[in-house]
Design a protein that fits this description.
Layout lengths: L19 E5 L6 H6 L4 E5 L7 E2 L4 E6 L1 H6 L2 H12 L3 E7 L5 H14 L3 E5 L2 H20 L1 H19 L7 H11 L2 H5 L3 H8 L1 H12 L1
Helix pairs in contact: 5-6, 9-10
Length: 214
Amino acid sequence: MTTKANSPVTAGSIVVPYGHVVGNEKWRGSEIAQKLQGKVRLIFEDGLGLVDFHLSNRTCILLISEADLVAGDEFKRRLVKFRNTSSLRGIVIVEKTQISDQYYLGVQKLVVLELGMVLLPVANQGEASQLIIQLVREQSRDRTNPFLGKQRTQLAEAAVLQAAQHIPGVGKTKALLLLQRFGSIHRLCNATLNELEQVVGHTVAQQIYTFLHS
């Protein structure tokens, strides 16, 4: 069940039952672990590599702390390595505080626009634990009610729409047009300047293209 330290966790290497969370040993004794105890069945494993917490249904959490954001680009390399080497569904939880707020837009661009992963901001480890508990409970409910899964998809699309609006020159209307035309952030990022111009015109298309490829 354990993997080589600092290596990515690949699909099939770990199976987590519904209602359980497998946590990286480095979080033992932390605030987030203490708040998870008693709310979910938390098990610690050494050597989970890039992943901080494993949930059921091939979902895992990568937690970016305030200290990670301030320290430099190491967290970016971790996210890119995970995206390139794992087929698991990664959810990125980032501590957005007064100190780290200045880095948030850059993280949002990397996680949502470039890597196509879900990004969830929290104020502290306490909020992060509540978010993980909510995800675990939602997974258990989704097993018996497929409609809830559709609701989750709608929430994810709303998050992507919000992220697209942070692109210079793009408001809600243009963001909707872009997502209707290209269908996903990945396709939007790979669009040519000419394809963008057909949707939003030359000036805004140039701003979008520059932002996505800078």
